[in-house]
Design a protein that fits this description.
The complex is a heterodimer of chains A (about 70) and B (about 425). Chain A is mostly helical and about 70 residues long. Chain A is about 85% helix and about 0% strand. In chain A, helix 1 runs antiparallel to helix 2. Chain B is built from 15 helices and no strands. The interface between A and B is large, with 38 and 52 residues.
Chain lengths: ~70, ~425
């Protein structure tokens, strides 16, 4: 039985999903903070939020790379 | 026989498409991230693209469950015909009941039943069955569910904001998760296209090779790829609204952050499983994610009676499709008349279920009551007609041998009329 493979899949799933969700949530939180009225430097918070979203889109691109056999062989 | 199997395989592809739209698009539709019509269109396009993207073919349809090759048995078009029949009928029944069930398991079940009836019990590789079907069926929803639970918890913990002095809630902008949902659900749809259309291509290629019209060991011909791609895309576009309703609203109430967590878990589980070697069913992963995310959000309840129904459906997938497959295999064994009887009976059953479903039509307009459902419902009449027409066209394409076009058209008008009366009632 392929228990090891099962564990790998479970682990990879957990790590990948948690990374993406944490990054995106941080992005959402930072946008919310930046939108607050009494914010001293909303620009920086906003740009950090965009960095988070950007990392997420990298993850999506990696997913595309995995899906398209032309790239991943 | 070959033409019949190809037609049947394409119809299976179609049912596969509309059965599995829900996996990718149920949660974004439920949260209002994408409008229902847009969602199925997006899913259809991605499935189409996905089917063309991958040229790597599933070498064996049965995937090591049925002993094939020189030391085993030869899979004949008869067996495949019977197997497809079982898979299609089971897909139609589960769709009618609104149950998300794995199309590939239905296909496996049908083929297993057909092989047992047609060849004998020793044609089945029990260890392969255990490893490819039964264990994944247990672990797919489990893994996806746990991951989705953790993700939902994290998403809510990270975005919850309270004023430190007053303790009142600050703006959380959780609606921002909707944008993310569009991307994650698109990934799921694309992955589905690359995987599931392949199965049908593999079947048709296998039949062509068995019939001697194609060299053994060669890949699928272009028209096969194109036909499968379009069959699955049309199926996806037709949208299995009943299943979307179950996944998007029947299991639990879905909010954007939760939907995003569920979609991300589904996408990662599918990608991880297809690249690290332990194949998991898309449908089972997606259902597990939705359940897990429902448990993760405070203030939501998971409707366990619905979960039980779905689990029961999964339990029956293999034997039920197997029995239909076995019966068809026995019929086919009797000769040409048997094949005809099987084909006619199968068509009749599918048509009956299709028209029976019209009695309580579930469409994009009433699949899920979304926050922004207001504008979606208002144009229901026009859209329902368009959908019915698309449905009729899809039916006509996959079943050119039955004169359903005229029938379905009048039916479409009748349905649209019925819809408007329903609308006013509401």
């Amino acid at each position: 039985m392929k228990w090891l493979e099962l564990l790998t899949v479970a682990g990879a799933t957990l790590i990948a999903a948690v990374t993406v969700v944490v990054l995106y949530s941080l992005g959402v939180r930072l946008t919310a903070i930046a939108a607050d009225a009494q914010q001293t430097s909303p620009g920086i918070k906003k740009s950090f939020a965009y960095v988070c979203f950007g990392l997420c889109s990298l993850a999506v691109l990696f997913g595309l790379y995995l899906i398209i056999p032309y790239f991943s062989g | 026989m070959v033409a019949l199997v190809i037609a049947l395989a394409l119809f299976f592809d179609f049912t596969n498409g509309f059965h599995d739209t829900a996996n990718a698009m149920a949660t974004p539709i439920a949260t209002g991230a994408i409008k229902p019509k847009t969602a199925v269109t997006l899913a259809a396009i991605l499935n189409l693209v996905g089917a063309f993207l991958s040229t790597e073919v599933a070498k064996t349809v049965s995937g090591g469950i049925i002993r094939e090759g020189s030391d085993g048995v030869q899979i004949t078009p008869d067996i495949i015909f019977a197997g497809l029949m079982g898979a299609i009928l089971w897909n139609m029944i589960t769709w009618l009941k609104g149950l998300p069930s794995s199309s590939s398991h239905a296909l496996f079940g049908g083929l297993i039943g057909a092989a047992i009836a047609g060849i004998g019990f020793n044609s089945i590789n029990l260890e392969g069955l255990m490893q490819k079907v039964i264990l994944p069926a247990i672990f797919a929803p489990l893994i996806a569910g746990i991951v989705a639970y953790v993700c939902t918890r994290l998403a809510y913990a990270l975005t919850s904001r309270h004023d430190p002095e007053t303790g009142s809630k600050l703006t959380q902008k959780r609606g921002g998760f909707r944008t993310g949902q569009i991307f994650t659900s698109s990934l799921v749809a694309l992955a589905h296209g690359t995987n599931d259309a392949q199965k049908t291509m593999g079947i048709i290629t296998l039949v062509l090779i068995a019939a001697g019209t194609q060299d053994p060991g060669s890949g699928p011909q272009f028209w096969v790829i194109a036909a499968c791609a379009f069959a699955i895309a049309i199926g996806t576009y037709a949208g299995g609204w009943r299943i979307i309703r179950t996944m998007g609203a029947g299991l639990t109430e879905v909010k954007p952050a939760q939907g995003f967590a569920a979609e991300t878990s589904t996408a990662s589980a599918i990608l991880a499983s297809s690249h690290l070697g332990f194949a998991l069913s898309t449908t089972q992963v997606a259902s597990g994610s939705v359940i897990g995310s429902g448990m993760g959000r405070k203030g939501t309840s998971v409707r366990w009676s619905m979960v039980g129904k779905i689990a029961l459906g999964w339990l029956f997938t293999l034997p039920a499709a197997g029995i239909v497959g076995a019966l068809t295999a026995l019929l086919v064994k009797t000769g040409v008349v048997g094949v005809l009887i099987a084909a006619v009976a199968g068509t009749a059953a599918v048509l009956f279920m299709f028209f029976y479903s019209r009695k309580s039509a579930v469409g994009h307009h009433n699949a899920i009551e979304v926050e922004e459902a207001g504008q979606a419902v208002r144009f229901a009449k026009k859209k329902a007609m368009a959908r019915a027409r698309a449905n009729a066209k899809a039916k006509a394409k996959t079943k050119t041998d039955t004169p359903v076009i005229a029938e379905a058209d009048t039916d479409a008008n009748a349905e649209a009329g019925a819809n408007t009366s329903k609308e006013t009632q509401r």
